[in-house]
Amino acid sequence: MKRVVITGMAALTPIGNNWETVAENLKKQQTGIQKMDDWDKYNGLNTRLAAPVDFSRPEHYTRKQVRGMGRVAMLGTYATELALIDAGLLNDPCLKSGRVGIAYGSSSGSFGGLVDFTKMLLNHDKGSLNATSYIRMMGHTCPVNIALHFGINGRIIPTSSACTSSSQGIGYAYETIKYGIQTLMVAGGSDELSASQAAVFDTLFATSIRNDEADKTPRPFDKDRDGLVIGEGGSTFILEERQHALNRGAHIYAEIIGFGTNSDGLHVTQPDSESMQVAMKLAMQDAELDESAIGYISAHGTSTERGDIAESQATAALFGHKTPISSIKSYTGHTLGACGAIEAWAAVNMMNENWFHPTANLENVDPECADLDYIKGDVRLLECNYVMSNNFAFGGINTSLIFKRE
């Protein structure tokens, strides 16, 4: 078995596009939630809240390079470029050696491409389509565009599993290196903001409608929460076989030592606490750790009633009430296919700096949620060697990742 380490990572988020900015906003409890006045045009859409990323096409990306990219693929590609720079591997010949693969996901392709096909079906006219409509729309648009942009020719593992897209990407990339199939992997995920994404949850009455109080929502685990807020973003990890990283003198952020994933097999949208607990147990078994070793848990924490309650009960059943836990979605909103990677990125950075953010807007814990050590109010100064990052998706897909301080 090979050991797997992180040698590069980056994220584009609603609260900043580098760790320094994100850390500052987390410490100030400054969220990225905004009122989207443009959404007033959608009849029947209740929420007007979202968390956009300050991002546009990088100036050095030519039109030819991005013609097959929607925003979702561009977020993923640029996050990957930043991560490759961080790892000292941008333009390295190894990217084209066949020893580097990609495990990357999004909850869907770009909605711009989907609109092209929808117009054709509604107007009975193929004129809305062009040569890139499908490339922008397809579910594996992110890993394909990343491979094309950087000339990566190892295996591709597309992970399109809603809220676990990027955490599955990281987990499958970890396993690919662990079992000696590839030496390096690009892993993570992205998603673009769209009113249609908000409508998915709005139809389920799961979105926050505090439209005039953007700074007070979402409120994971809080008794006064009223739903989630949709966000967007992209985050990429460069994973590497540990000895290979040491041989080239790479900086190592952390080691991945545990990954668990499973499915409920019960309901498309209703979470199952017991299955969540199993995913965490699988990660602990993979890491060969006792639960007491985990110093911090990055919660999925969507700010939906059933999700918060089920997750908290699963966590308490395994860890009791002593392990500190918080949710970054209270700052970024729910970034869907990007959330697992963004949350893991933040957790690893905080572990290395010995502090962890509180859950924003968490004032009164819902009595239906389990008794946990919820970080609220202020930053928690804490030195630990292991952190866990959990994500749970539509379809009953659960993931759990464990990172070890190097």
CATH class: Alpha Beta
Low-confidence stretches: none
Full CATH superfamily name: Thiolase/Chalcone synthase
What's the oligomerization state? single chain
- How much helix, percentage-wise, in residues? 25-40%
Distance between the termini: 18 Å
Overview of this structure, please?
- By secondary structure, this protein is an alpha/beta fold.
- The protein has a single domain (4-405), classed as Peroxisomal Thiolase, Chain A, domain 1.
- The strands form three sheets. It has an eleven-stranded mixed β-sheet, with helices on both faces. Strands 2-3-7 form a three-stranded mixed β-sheet, with no helix packed on it.
- The mean pLDDT is 97.
- It has 13 helices and 16 strands.
- The chain is globular.
- The chain has helices at 19-28, 63-66, 71-87, 111-123, 133-137, 141-150, 165-178, 195-202, 242-247, 273-287, 305-319, 329-332, 339-353; strands at 4-12, 34-35, 49-51, 100-105, 156-158, 184-191, 230-231, 233-241, 254-263, 296-298, 324-326, 355-356, 373-374, 380-381, 386-393, 397-405.
- Helix 10 (273-287) crosses helix 11 (305-319).
- Helix 11 (305-319) links the parallel strand 10 (296-298) and strand 11.
- The two termini are 18 Å apart.
